[in-house]
Amino acid sequence: MKNSLNKLIALGISLIISGLTPFSALTQTASVSEKMLQMEQGLEKEFEDYFGENMAEVSQSSEEIAKTLSRVGKETGTNPAVLWVMPKEDHLHLVLLTPGETPVVKDLYDVPLSLLIKTAKTLQENINSPLDKNYLKSSQQLHKWIIEPIEKEFLQGRKIDTLLFCVGAGLRGLPLAALHDGEQFLIEKYSLSHIPAFNLINTEYRPMKSGQILAMGASEFQNQNPLPAVPVELANITWELRSQLKPEEKWQGKTFLNRQFTLQNLKDNLNQESFNIVHLATHAEFAQGKPENSYIQFWDTRLKLSEINQINWNKPPVELLVLSACETAVGDSEAELGFAGLALKSGVKSVLASLWYISDPGTLALMNEFYRQLAIAPTKAEALRQTQLAMIKGKVRFQDGKLLYSRGSVPLPVKLGVSNQLDLSHPFFWASFTLISSPW
Questions:
Q1: Which among 26, 91, 160, 327 could disulfide-bond with 81, CB atoms 3.0 to 4.6 Å apart, if both were Cys?
Q2: Residue spans of beta strands (DSSP E) within 6-129
Q3: Which one of 168, 200, 232 terminates a domain?
């Protein structure tokens, strides 16, 4: 009792010395927690207004989120943190929350909205070509603004290895993995995911050990460019999962290609069976305007984003939905809301999708390595990170008509016409793919 009293007196003295009374310090902490909840509620309203429907109620306080991070960290063997990146008219508002800690707030008044958005658009434009090397200047500037203020003391100091980014309007299309500190890309330091709001994601953890995968896609379309690598892509992804597991851990799969790749087949299979993963190798577009302008292309029709929650994704919830040939209208706030809210709207736990279309061979390379990593990584975010690292380091590449990756090689269709000179280490090929919602 005496020791506790002494500690309390010492705390009071230290707070008075720092200019804060114990009561005002508690009030300040409560105020930050309250503001965080208001920020989360504001994000929820953005998605509700865009989709025109109520979402899950935002109710977790910062203290509860910090406890959730601690719990999931222990379950996954990771050390996650949430970083809210909120552009304001006259400054950039950063809030970091790490497991079991109180929020860290940084306001950068030398980064007004106009400058931040201009720099983000420059990065998006420069990184969108595999021949352009001019992306580094804007990539490093964005890293300096978004990561550097909290990295040394809080990310490195608390040994954070997984970052959940919750970003505001104008930054939801930012290829976060490609931010650069002058020596490394951000993905070389942390596993990443892009969340709509922490209160809007599924935080339950279930290892991807075995289960069912529904793989569907098309290599030819009536009104869109062909995707000739899709048959190879679909043939390999289930095999990759199976090859990494113990004999008793069985992955089962169903595949539907071209004329069998119908919306009705998707609905029927999801109604009849439970699938852990649904992989759609097809064109998808997140466009300007309302959700009905965005779609996933099937052989016979388009599934509009506004209708995606009419599919039976969640009995039980699909762990991972993969869209392997997406394109998002860069810089458009509505298109970016559709992209960031895809998991939220569908009800699946996590989505892997691309901000821009990276080419058929590039997609094939990334997907083959991703499914290999998914079978062995502790989380989906870490599987994507290891995939992107393998591409950066040249472990995934094309050579003599084959795709070489960490497991071995895959012969390529002659009609793909892939050149050995295709440099998959350029962020154009790997930074586009983003894990949306739960990293676990």
A1: 160
A2: 80-87, 92-97, 104-108
A3: 200
